[in-house]
Design goal:
single chain, alpha+beta, three-stranded antiparallel beta sheet, 14% strand, elongated, Ribosome-associated protein
Length: 132
């Protein structure tokens, strides 16, 4: 994944944001929407595109776009930076390979303790039964 190439492929759109800001909200577009075309990206290899489409299937639109929105701050520039960071975090997390789980054997001591606890619990309940 080449971040520099991906940054040039992003489409930014400024939208009016809801929330705090007073009268400023009605006249300034501070909310940022980033659209990233996954299929046509030159910053990703083919294998990466395939894994991203599989892992991020719930985030991808029908046209194979990933859309990220940010309206946390009142500054358009800060929102832009935050949205780009979020996109790269999303892509990196999706591209991480999961480690295989090593199968481990349960120690005999643990099995023995579990069975003893089970036996003790059964005895407790039996004693309650016959105390009537």
């Amino acid at each position: 994944m080449n971040k520099e190439i991906i940054k040039t492929e992003l489409n930014y759109k400024a939208v009016r944001s809801s929330g705090a800001g007073g009268q400023n909200v009605n006249k300034v577009s501070t909310k940022i929407q980033i659209t990233f075309a996954l299929e046509t990206s030159n910053g990703l290899m083919d294998e990466e595109k395939i894994t991203l489409t599989e892992k991020l299937s719930n985030r991808i639109t029908k046209d194979n776009f990933i859309i990220i929105e940010c309206d946390e701050t009142r500054s358009q520039l800060k929102n832009k930076e935050l949205a780009v960071k979020r996109l790269f975090i999303l892509l990196e997390n999706a591209l991480k390979k999961e480690k295989k789980r090593l199968v481990t054997k349960v120690p005999k001591r643990v099995i023995r303790k579990r069975l003893e606890d089970k036996k003790n619990q059964a005895e407790k309940k039996l004693n309650r039964k016959f105390k009537l």
